[in-house]
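U., I forgot to send this yesterday:
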Amino acid sequence: MSVPDPSRRAILFDIDGTLLRSRGSAAIFDDAMESVFGIRGDLGSIRPDGMTDPDILATLMNGRSPVHGAITPRLLAKFEVRLARALADGVARGDVSVWALPGVAALLRELSRRDDALLGIVTGNMRATARIKLGAVGLQGYFPDGGYGSDSPVRDLLPGVALRRMSQRADVILDARRSVMIGDTPHDLSAARAHGVRCVLVATGQYTHDELVAAGPDVLLEDLSDGERALRAILGEE
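Result:
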C-alpha cells in the first residue's frame, strides 16, 4: 500500500520551449489533421504554445464539422499514431530538426542523481509524439511517466495525471505541495496552480519575458543554462 513520502518530490517538465525546440513539425501536424479529420488546419495561424494537441485540433477546426465525425477518442488515437509516424519519419530524414535547450542536459543529469527527486513530464503533446521528441535529443530515459495531451484536452488536469502515475510507479504518495512544474507559458503556470504545485517559468519559448512576469510564477529564469541557479529555483531555495 502506497504511503506519503515527504522526502521525495515530483519535478515536472514541459517539453516544447522548456526542454527542447523543434523546426519543421507544423506541416506534419497539418497533414495528419487533414488525413484523419478531413479538415486541413494551419498550425502557424494560432499560438499553440502550452495548448494540448486535442485543444489545438478543436481550435483549428473553428466550429467546422470533421468529415469523419466528431473528435472522438478513437479518432484522437488514430491521429496520435499518424502524427507520431510522420514525425519519426521527418526526424529520420532530417526534415524535422529537434534540439535541446541550453543547460537542459546537465540539469537533468544532476536532478536524476538526487534521491529526493522524481522526474516527470507534463505536456500538451500526445504521449507518442512526446517520446519521439525527447528521444531525438537523448532525454527520454529521464522521464518514465507523465501527463500528456492524449490523456485529456484540459491542460490543467495533466499535473494530476502525472503525479498519480509517478506515485504508482514509485509506490509512494507524492505531495503536490512539494512538487514543482517547469514550463515556458502561462498555461504551465495555470496547470501547476490548479494542483497547488510550485511553478518555475523559463523565457525560452514564444512568450516574452514581460508576459511571463505578468503571469506571476514563483520564479522566472531566462533559461536553464545557469545550472546552479536553476537547481536552487527548482528545489525552492531561491
